[in-house]
Design goal:
This protein is 38% helix and 12% strand. The chain contains 7 helices and 8 strands; from the N terminus they run βαββαβαββαβαβαα. The longest helix is centred in the last third of the chain and has 24 residues.
């Protein structure tokens, strides 16, 4: 497809991750080609991206909004029932849809997502600190859990949506042969951290280190906290 004809739609575009993807798209695409689907528009960008009021739990509502948006690429960032089993079923449905009527799909798996605008991960950690609960430990402290900074989450989504990522593996010899179909992201599931598969096929490397992401997120949290405190005083 001609890149100038591409149109992007973010399902759940007013949420933490969805809005970050919206802003990432606006950095390199005209606002009339970027759409957000949700019940309430929370961000009013100077770029005036398009917003379609949509019940994201209604299939008919979603389909109607997608038709109106003219989207050629859809990012799904909302989970009405955010449980592990529901997310696993949703992921299976997305992958099973790959190849149907020309549709190309992939799924990205993340650990805890944090950064400016985060209302769960970082605020939860800071509350534990303020409440003096850091001395409590459950288990042997051997469980591993990954955290991903929001800029890296956006980066991974945009890489997955890039047309050439669906054609060639940039790190394989097959990339040198345009006549070959190559290795693509369509139909695949990627764990976004520092894993080799995401590097090899997506070309993903974190833009922001975990340490730097924590510093930026904490700074943004403190700034927002000060703003809210000033509002209360006034």
């Amino acid at each position: 497809m001609d890149p100038s004809l591409e149109s992007f739609c973010v399902l759940g575009g007013e949420g933490f991750v969805g809005q970050a993807i919206i802003q990432g798209l606006l950095a390199s695409h005209p606002p009339q080609r970027v759409s957000s689907l949700g019940l309430t528009q929370r961000t009013f960008s100077p770029s005036n991206y398009r917003f379609f009021r949509t019940d994201v739990t209604s299939k008919s509502d979603i389909l109607a909004s997608l038709r109106l948006s003219g989207a050629t690429t859809v990012f799904h960032t909302v989970s009405p029932h955010p449980t592990a089993s529901a997310e696993a079923r949703s992921e299976s449905m997305v992958i099973a849809a790959n190849g149907i009527n020309g549709l190309r799909t992939c799924a990205l798996r993340f650990g805890g997502i944090f950064g400016p605008g985060d209302r769960q991960v970082l605020p939860g950690f800071i509350k534990v600190y303020h409440d003096g609960q850091t001395s409590f430990q459950m288990g042997q402290n051997l469980n591993l859990f990954d955290f991903v900074y929001i800029s890296n989450v956006v980066h991974a989504h945009l890489l997955a949506a890039s047309p050439h990522r669906n054609r060639f593996d940039q790190f394989s010899q097959i990339y040198l042969d345009p006549s070959s179909e190559g290795v693509g992201v369509a139909g695949e599931v990627f764990v976004i951290s520092n894993g080799e598969p995401a590097r090899r096929v997506l070309g993903y490397e974190p833009l922001v280190s975990l340490e730097e992401g924590i510093k930026e997120a904490v700074a943004a949290y403190k700034t927002e906290e000060q703003r809210l405190q000033a509002q209360k005083r006034n």
